[in-house]
Design brief:
Length: 202
Amino acid sequence: MMQLTQTIQIMPYAYGKPGKQPVQPMLPGLEAEQTTRPMVTNRQVAEVLSSIASLLEFQNSNPYRIQAYRNAARGVLELQEPAAAIVARGELLPVPGLGRRLQMRIAELVSTGTMTFYNDLCMQSLPQGARSLMAVEHVGPHVAIRLYEELGIDSPEKLWWAAHQQRLRKLSGFGVRSETRLKEAAAHFLGRKEPAQLGGVA
């Protein structure tokens, strides 16, 4: 699972050719391991790459480097098959202009569900409260910083309450639809529909 970032939903993905294989009876505890691995979708990869571009902007990084991550995000979205499947075959992603370092970072993401570079970048660029918010789906660096700085929201639970109190829609660029989406995402992350009462928040 992603750490310090948007939660990535891992879906089981079967590798190898379809079809039944001969199965030999095994003693209990000696069963063959299932050939399934977690799959990160192309859209999730693109979201991480776009977030990296935003974080690099916060650091006033090289514009060409920032654009490289944005181009990579678009390229991954245009792939005709899952990046995870391509990496599993040991092939390079057919994305124009994608350098070796980016290939390796994407391979790490689709293979393990996390990217060390992204996590380190979040640690360097964002306060703890903003990083906590990015564990919620749909919350990228820009949104996390705005929620943290403008509304003082520093946890998924406080995000749910702020949306419940209709405070998010008062921010420039936010509306009822985005507020509802973030409320649902926060509730999903918290694993319940009604978070416990927060002192000083409700």
